[in-house]
Amino acid sequence: MPELPEVETITNRLISGNGDQSSLVNRTIHDSIILWARTLAEPSQKEFQSRIIGQQVAAINRRGKYLVFSLSDDYLIIHLRMSGDILVAGQQETLDPHARMVIDFEPDLRMTFQDPRKFGRIWLVADKDSVLGKLGPEPLDETFTASDFYDRLQRHRRQIKPLILDQTFLAGMGNIYTDEALHQAQIHPLTKSDEISFAQAQNLLFSIQQVLRQAIDRHGTSIDWIYRGGDYQRLLRVYGRTGSACPVCASPVERIRVGQRGTHFCPICQPRPG
């Protein structure tokens, strides 16, 4: 699943353009085609197509793992889920067989939401908080401090990895970057959140932010056929490296399941609590 760095990369590409592709900002929508009905979460197809035509893109942002298009009157919100991606090309280009929705912009640009596994969702809403309101803080928000993070950790008695993956606790984190940040901070993924000291919380937040910024700089991680935009996989310390030497102590990286998610860690650098 695309995580925060991958969604940030796609957002930046839509804002600035890519090669010969122009930015979508300030473009006016003149048509839309829904090719897989369940891709559209809200509103109805008929209302979507009547409302979105004629609206102009004022800004494009990321919130957690969501793409947020601020339009003239509404918000177009896209969640890529397991296999979604956004492509922009000329309207004359042949549609990908996995295209689920198409939005045409004046004069000749086409944005295609393609999603082989069909889990992605799109909303057109007047109030973005109706979709995004329950998300937790952004880990890269400069106003989100170590004290804020520590206080949030102390309110729960949950294993740290599933808590970080909870989008209502912290927005945008996924399996890859959580494993990497926990390793860098030397915290075992089963550690209870309320047993983490302030110094550990401070170090973990720094590690989360550093890992995310490095991944954004490298346009995310390409590990399968879903997302091929970046090369952060060259810097992975533990994720997907079961049996390989830990880059810090050379002990074999281990893999366990935590909260039904494959989890990679070093048993020496990240000793199990208790």
Q: What's the layout of helices and strands?
A:
Layout: H1 4-16, E1 29-34, E2 40-42, H2 45-52, E3 57-63, E4 66-71, E5 75-79, E6 85-90, E7 99-105, E8 109-114, E9 121-125, H3 129-132, H4 146-154, H5 160-165, H6 175-185, H7 198-217, E10 254-258, E11 261-265
Parallel strand pairs: 2-9
Antiparallel strand pairs: 1-7, 3-4, 4-5, 5-9, 6-8, 7-8, 10-11
Helix pairs in contact: 1-7, 4-7, 6-7
Task: Tell me the structural class.
Answer: alpha+beta
Describe the strand arrangement of the main beta sheet, using strand numbers. 2-9-5-4-3
If helices are DSSP runs of H or I spanning 4 or more residues, what is the number of helices? Answer: 7
Rg from C-alpha positions? 20 Å
Mean pLDDT: 94
Portion of residues in beta strands equals: 15-25%
Number of strands: 11
The proportion of residues forming helix, as a percent range, comes to 25-40%
What is the rounded distance between the termini?
Answer: 33 Å
Order of helices and strands: HEEHEEEEEEEHHHHHEE
User: Which shape, going by the Cα principal axes?
Assistant: elongated
Stretches where pLDDT is under 50 for at least 5 consecutive residues are none
Written description of the protein model:
26% of the residues lie in helices and 22% in strands. The radius of gyration is 20 Å and the shape is elongated. The protein has helices spanning 4-16, 45-52, 129-132, 146-154, 160-165, 175-185, 198-217; strands at 29-34, 40-42, 57-63, 66-71, 75-79, 85-90, 99-105, 109-114, 121-125, 254-258, 261-265. Strand 3 (57-63) and strand 4 (66-71) form a beta hairpin. It starts with a helix and ends in a 9-residue tail after the last strand. The chain is an alpha+beta fold and 274 residues long. It has a five-stranded mixed sheet with strand order 2-9-5-4-3. Strands 1-7-8-6 form a four-stranded antiparallel sheet, covered by helices on one side. Strands 10-11 form a two-stranded antiparallel ribbon.
